[in-house]
Amino acid sequence: MKEVRYIRDPVFGNIELSEVEARILETKEMQRLRRIKQLGNAYLVYPGATHNRFQHSLGTMEATKRLSRQLFGSEMEALSLVGMLHDIGHAPLSHTLDSQYEQHLGKGHEQIGLDLIFGSEIWDIVSGSSVSKREFADLFSGKERGKVVAGALGSDRVDYLLRDAYYTGVALGIIDFNRIISNARLYKNVPAIEKGGIVGAESLLIARYFMFSSVYTHHAVEIANLMASKAAGMAIDDETIDPEKLYRMSDQDLENLIMDSSGRKLQERINYRTLYKRAVYSDIEASSKISRGEIDGALSKSGLEYDDYVTTVISYKPGGDISVVAEDGKCLGDLGMLSPLINTLNKVMEDKRTLLVACDEKNIGKVKRVIGKIL
Question: Which residue has the higher pLDDT, 127 or 286?
Fold first, then answer.
């Protein structure tokens, strides 16, 4: 009798593993994800948010299987593996270093992940599941059935909302996954929702907005992650860190290297949670042309050093639209059109932009004056 392997997960319960899945989980590339926090430095604000990308990868795989059974009548092994592997290219601290990837490597964690899969023993294991490189790459990139993982109604979003809400203790991220599953349908090879499940789909997009507002773009979370990103950038610039090796590092590897670099001051403040304070935190017009380069230039002229402040413009992207279908499979329209609630929410997110500039308390007055002249 074939031995059945399970992993106990706090969100989905028992997650059953196939032999292929178990072998992939044992690779060093997947094990590295245990040492990368899902929400970067959000644990400095939400102490429970120490969960990792490994847990999220398992949850996304399980959510993919459940969606697949509903949409296709059975699990699709290649899709389940995409769910498991979709974040394997993340840098330490997850999305915190996305800008460093783009600046120094010219690609995002998705392409880096795909390169990593094809260039390691992982592909030797995956290729045994009778999927070609091109088919796998298309699924991994979110094309057609790949939207079961990466789409607006996809397993990636389902898991991160449920998991992040669980570990942060923020109930605003709770969604009715069972209702979504039971009303999910396939339309033009992409997950859609049957009319009776509109409320479940609404809950997904509303929960996403609330989690962005209260957790992902919480001002202190943003400040901590901006400080970490700037510190990493300084360590790359002084050649303490090789950006080509970021996708091999853990959070601790990164932090140790930064402590030996010109980014040390920022990392020390993160370590002891003496984060910079808000100097400017205000909504700006969507049409505003203000840029980080302009702000950096003005603050530098005022006498501040590069590591004396952090700045960003927070924007909120709508969650993508979801097709609504009738029982006969005919499309009734997009959720954003049929749901006044989601239509309003999308407009709010499209128009909302917030300028955040943070620094040491002693410099707040100076920063306010400098930014006030620009605005």
Answer: 127
